[in-house]
Amino acid sequence: MLTDPVTTMPASSAAPRLLVALSGGVDSAVAAARAHEQGWQVEAAYMKNWINEENVLGDCPWQQDIEDARAVSEHLGIPFRVLNFMAEYRERIVGYLLDGYASGLTPNPDVLCNREMKFGVLLDWALENGFEAVATGHYCRKEEIGGVPALREGMDDNKDQSYFLCLLRPEQLRRAVFPVGDLPKPEVRRIASGLGLPNAGKKDSQGICFIGEVKINDFLETFIPDKPGPIVDLEGRQLGEHRGLHRYTLGQRRGIGIPSNAENEFYVVVAKRMDRNELVVAFESSRPDPLWHEEVRLHHLSWLIPEPPAKARDLEVRVRYRDPRVAARYEPQADGGALLRFAEKQRALASGQVCALYDSDRVLGGGIYP
What we know:
Layout: E1 17-21, H1 26-37, E2 41-48, H2 62-76, E3 80-84, H3 86-102, H4 109-128, E4 133-135, E5 140-145, E6 148-153, H5 170-174, E7 176-177, H6 185-195, H7 216-223, E8 229-232, E9 238-242, E10 267-273, E11 278-283, E12 292-303, E13 313-318, E14 326-332, E15 338-347, E16 354-359, E17 362-368
Parallel strand pairs: 1-2, 1-4, 2-3, 4-7, 8-11
Antiparallel strand pairs: 5-6, 6-17, 8-9, 10-11, 12-15, 12-17, 13-14, 13-16, 14-15, 16-17
Helix pairs in contact: 1-6, 3-4
């Protein structure tokens, strides 16, 4: 059974082949270096998924990323290739992103990208071409518990990325390797500098998965036409006009386009009524605050454990990436979804976003807000 190279290597006369997904950034570069030091037969690939062919506003630095990934591979002395998955990316990620926003949802492309691309299309290619596993620079850990691969949070609380992997399938996790998950980010930078990696000082990317430093509204307006409509308050009074519901998300405060006309009072988005094309806003001081949730339903549940809970149980959840884990009561529903009852109210849970489920620092799975 495949094990994580950070701890042990499979006993074999020939080192197993590992394909490292090089993004051009420092995390995946150090992941490749660490895996090589652990004894894997490492090769690298850059996934060419998007080239900004639609002239989307913003920086889409795929050419520089390829050059950086190639330079890292040459420095480490490992084979490098560029794999073109643009058609698959457009179908699985861009299509999902645009369909979601057009339907009034707030999708999470980064979570889906891990399941469908890095550990989907790329892993399938790797297995077809004789590799044992795919490694990435994610800050998370994998270990065996009772013969089953378990996903745990990364050791660096500030960089933990386990949330983004909560929708992986067990067979994908079994073939996943996370060589930097046991390190803090400053140590990754130190290792990169010590090895003389050519991208050791490169800044972290903050853009959409594989698209780059593009503002989401700039991206969306290229593909989704604006459909103006009324901005209304909770009583239905029209306060202004929005440009299109896809441009807004729950809890948004800036960029709504209407003044509060009151000292220290600010409007926030509290609902999107697709049937009426209405954007609903309220003052942040509204009581009760319509953005706070005592409970929420989840659908499209995905599990990383062999036996999903068949009965109600207590667990922890991360309602969005940067939020801490919070206690919740998980109650399975007859339709295959679940009801989450939070120990403390949670704010602005946007439909289409992902909720990760945890048992302490172990990721159990995840689901999507309706």
